[in-house]
Write a structure and sequence with these properties.
The chain starts with about 25 loop residues before the first strand and ends in an 11-residue tail after the last strand. With about 325 residues, the chain is of the alpha+beta class. Helix content is about 20%, strand content about 40%. It is elongated and about 80 Å long. The longest helix has 25 residues. Helix 3 packs across helix 4. The protein has five helices and 19 strands. It folds into two domains: about 150 residues, 2-Layer Sandwich (Alpha-D-Glucose-1,6-Bisphosphate, Chain A, domain 4), CATH 3.30.530; about 150 residues, Calycin beta-barrel core domain (Lipocalin, Beta Barrel).
Length: about 325
């Protein structure tokens, strides 16, 4: 049975969808990285895993062909073989193909394959979660197209569920629990103080509290010198409903906005910061590492955007020591 006609095209390569024309869109979150999912389209073994097909053969190039067969007793090339000609692709983001109906397909499938196309898009939410959408277009009017729409509405939903099942990151729940435990260890009021190269003092305070049994974390950060401090940032952390993973959202004193997924790299908790700079709107990709010490202190290390070779410089590295509980605070974070 043809589960899904994965066929797509760019605007310049296939008929345009007219205003008001029927389209069929299925989308959902797959708990795997975009590159991991996209790589499955490149090989027969990958497609067998991703789509749950019995047989698959892939010539992954523009003009190449993806051929699949859902029948365990069948083989590639028989009358149940589904063909998809590759029109274009953007690695890790989009795949465009044109469907070729199997010889044994029903009339409504053959009809849609004459006019239809599909766009597959991958939108990374985190390094380990991706929103995947499959959009089919080219449905005309009439009974055959009506049957095709109903058939693929069910078939595409089945295929998306198969992809979610096949690629599910089984370590996600354990990772979320580990991150929640780390945040819990940081609740309270924390301070650091260190000398600057010019002989001055760089000082900071972080007030971290939780809501809803630790499901949401709030942190207000203050920076200054030995004379005064002012609020530098306000952070919210929680499990993002879309990705199902821990994320942080942060505003600073300039109005710049930062968001990023939380993960562990060995023993370090890491936030992959992506900041929208309020001054010019440009995106800045940084990295923040939290190292937890046996005495209960923790160190925060802020790293610069990665160079072409992957290396990063250090913006700041400070060690926080707990000075109190996270209760009501004044304008500068004092209790």
């Amino acid at each position: 049975m043809l589960r899904i006609a994965v066929a797509s095209c760019l605007v310049l390569l296939a008929p345009l969808a007219r205003a008001g024309e029927r389209i069929l869109r299925n989308e959902g979150v797959i708990h795997a990285g975009a590159s991991e999912i996209f790589d499955c389209f490149r090989t027969g073994e990958g497609l067998k895993k991703l789509w749950g097909v019995a047989h698959a053969d892939v010539d992954f190039k523009v003009g190449g062909m993806i051929r699949t067969n859902y029948n365990p007793a069948g083989k590639i090339g028989d009358d149940a073989t589904i063909g998809n000609a590759i029109l274009a692709y953007e690695p890790d983001r989009m795949l465009a193909m044109r469907p070729i109906a199997p010889a044994g397909a029903q009339d409504f499938v053959k009809k849609l394959c004459e006019t239809g196309w599909t766009v597959i898009r991958l939108e990374p939410l985190t390094p380990t979660s991706t929103k995947l959408s499959v959009t089919m277009a080219g449905f005309g009017e009439g009974e055959l197209y009506d049957k095709a729409y109903t058939f693929f509405e069910q078939g595409n939903a089945w295929t998306l569920a198969k992809m979610q099942e096949a690629m599910n990151d089984k370590a996600r729940e354990a990772r979320n629990e580990r991150i929640a435990k780390a945040w819990k260890s940081m609740l309270g009021t924390w301070e650091f103080s260190q000398k600057t190269p010019d002989g001055g003092t760089f000082r900071g305070r972080s007030v971290i509290a939780s809501l809803f049994d630790g499901r949401v974390i709030f942190a207000s950060g203050f920076l200054g010198n030995d004379k005064a401090m002012g609020q530098h940032s306000h952070l919210t952390a929680g499990i993002d409903p879309e990705s199902g993973e821990w994320m942080v959202w942060n505003f600073d004193q300039d109005g710049s906005f930062t968001r990023g997924p939380v993960s562990f790299d060995g023993e370090k908790m890491v936030v992959a910061w992506t900041t929208a700079n309020a001054a010019d709107g440009k995106l800045i990709d940084c990295r923040v590492e939290y190292t937890f010490h046996e005495d209960g202190d923790y160190t925060v290390k802020v790293l610069t955007p990665a160079e072409k070779n992957g290396s990063r410089g250090t913006v700041a590295e400070v060690r926080y020591r707990k000075v109190g509980d996270a209760v009501g605070t004044g304008a500068d974070g004092t209790r």
